Amino acid sequence: MEHQKHFFRAIFLLIVIIMVYIFARSLIFHPETWVPEAKEMIRSHTPVFGNLHGCNGCHSEVARTRAEGEHKGVSCEVCHAPLSTHAEGKKKIAPMVKNRSAKLCMRCHQQLRARPANFSQVVVANHLSENGIAFEPEVCIDCHMPHSPKL
Asked: Is 122 helix (H, G, I), strand (E, B) or coil?
């Protein structure tokens, strides 16, 4: 009986600590508790990256080609620069950078045992020699359409 009161004190203390933790966490991580200056600073940042819909609005033909091909789930910005370097809204502000390098293609398609077996992989040296092609910096796009490589 004498030790029972210590047990209840420990349980009570543990409950209080958990409640204080939950309350403090809600204040720290809940955006409504952030100071207005911080909210305004976050809102003022212009997004650097877009999404597929940002590109598809102006490039509908390319979007259709991509949607039918193997790269349908790959963001445009994987091979191109961030959307913000090319357009603001629907207004073009600069030409879009196009990375046509074989090194970019090999990031995903160089054969690795860790990749799923059903993922399109090649041993580049074998692939090129079988097709009688010499390696050049943009060799992949000589035969494969980047937006739909199977075509």
From this structure: strand
| Phi and psi, residue 61, nearest 5° | -65, -45
pLDDT at site 12: 95
Q: Is the pTM of this model over 0.85?
A: no
Distance CA 66, CA 146 (A): 9
Domain residue extents for the chain: 4-44, 52-143
pLDDT in tens, 58-87: 888 998 998 888 888 888 888 888 888 898
> Which of 82, 111, 106, 116 has the alpha carbon at shortest distance from 96?
82
Single out the residue of 91, 99, 105 nearest to residue 54, CA to CA.
91
User: pLDDT tens digits, residue range 109-139?
Assistant: 999 888 888 888 999 999 999 999 999 999 9
Residue 111, Cβ density class (10 Å: 0-12 exposed, 13-18 middle, ≥19 buried): middle
* Tokens 């212009």, located at residue: 46
Partners of 98 in beta bridges? 80
